[in-house]
Design brief:
This protein is of the alpha/beta class. The chain folds into two domains: about 170 residues, Flavodoxin domain (Rossmann fold); about 50 residues, 2-Layer Sandwich (Alpha-Beta Plaits). The protein is built from seven helices and ten strands. The strands form three sheets. The protein has a six-stranded mixed β-sheet with strand order 2-1-4-6-7-10, sandwiched between helices.
Length: about 260
C-alpha cells in the first residue's frame, strides 16, 4: 500500500503534523503540495490500493477556500482517507466537518480524522514550538490506531463522526496582508512562493488584498525577513484571542 500525503501548508506546520502521522506507517509516501500554485491546479486521480491523508490548516474555523478548490481537482476513487486539520490553539470549529464533506464529494472514503495543534502562523506566542514532543508521541499513537483499523479489513473502515456544524460558519476574509520593508532586495521569491499568486513580480512590495489569504508564506520564506504585517493589528488580535488561546489544547482522534 502506498500513501498519498496531500497537504496545504503555507508555513510548514501542517506538513510537519502530516509527516509525524505518516512516518510511523512505514509505507512509501507520495507528497502533493497544494500550497504550490504552479502544480496544484493539475487534476489527479488516486489508485484504489492507496491510502490518502489530507492535511490542511484551519483558517477562522473553516477550510481555506484555496485548499478546498485544489482538493476538488483530486479524484479519490474510494481511496481510504485520513483527514487532518491543524489549528493554532484557538478552535477549529467547522473545519473538520467541511473537510469531510469536500473529501467525500471528491470520492474519498473517510476512515479517520485528527485535529492537531501547531504554532499559530500569525500570533507566534500561541502554541509556540508545537507540535512538541508530547504532540509527537500522541500523533504517533493516533497513527498506530488508524493503521490497526486499516489492518482490520474493509469491514472495519467505517466513517467516523466529526464535530462541526452544517451550514458552516461564515468564512472570514484576509485581515492581515504582509508588506515589504526597506530590507527587500526584490529577489522575487515571495511572488514565486505565494499560494494565491497575490504578489506580482512587477510589484513585490505589496500583495493584492483581494487575492491574499493571510497565510504568511511570504513572511516565512523571505530570505531577508523583509515582509511583515501590521504589528498593531497583530497585538490587537493577540489580546482578543488571549482567553481562548491561553489554555493548552490537545490533539483529538476521531475513528
Amino acid at each position: 500500500m502506498n500513501v498519498t500525503q496531500i497537504t496545504f501548508s503555507p508555513t510548514g506546520g501542517t506538513a510537519q503534523v502530516a509527516e509525524l502521522i505518516t512516518r510511523s506507517w512505514g509505507m512509501p509516501v507520495h507528497k502533493i503540495d497544494l500550497s504550490n500554485a504552479q502544480t496544484a491546479g493539475s487534476f489527479l486521480s488516486l489508485g484504489k490500493g492507496d491510502l490518502a491523508i489530507i492535511a490542511i490548516p484551519s483558517y477562522g474555523g473553516r477550510v481555506p477556500g484555496l485548499a478546498a478548490q485544489r482538493i476538488s481537482n483530486i479524484h479519490g476513487n474510494q481511496t481510504p482517507c485520513v483527514l487532518v486539520c491543524v489549528y493554532g490553539n484557538r478552535a477549529y470549529e467547522d473545519t473538520l466537518v467541511e473537510l469531510n464533506d469536500i473529501a467525500e464529494k471528491g470520492g474519498f472514503k473517510v476512515i479517520a480524522a485528527i485535529a492537531a495543534i501547531a504554532e499559530h502562523s500569525i500570533i507566534h506566542q500561541y502554541a509556540t514550538g508545537r507540535p512538541d514532543t508530547k504532540d509527537e508521541s500522541e500523533l504517533t499513537y493516533f497513527s498506530q490506531k488508524i493503521l490497526d483499523k486499516i489492518n482490520g479489513g474493509l469491514a472495519q473502515l467505517t466513517t467516523p463522526q466529526v464535530p462541526g456544524n452544517r451550514p458552516y460558519k461564515k468564512a472570514s476574509g484576509a485581515g492581515l496582508v504582509p508588506k515589504a520593508n526597506g530590507d527587500c532586495t526584490s529577489c522575487g521569491l515571495c511572488a514565486e512562493q505565494c499560494p494565491a499568486k497575490a504578489i506580482s513580480p512587477e510589484n513585490l512590495k505589496v500583495a493584492d488584498s483581494k487575492k491574499c489569504i493571510s497565510c504568511m508564506r511570504c513572511v516565512v520564506k523571505c530570505p531577508q525577513s523583509a515582509r511583515h504585517v501590521n504589528q498593531a493589528m497583530v497585538t490587537a488580535a493577540a489580546l482578543a484571542l488571549k482567553k481562548a488561546c491561553s489554555t493548552r489544547k490537545e490533539n483529538e482522534l476521531f475513528i
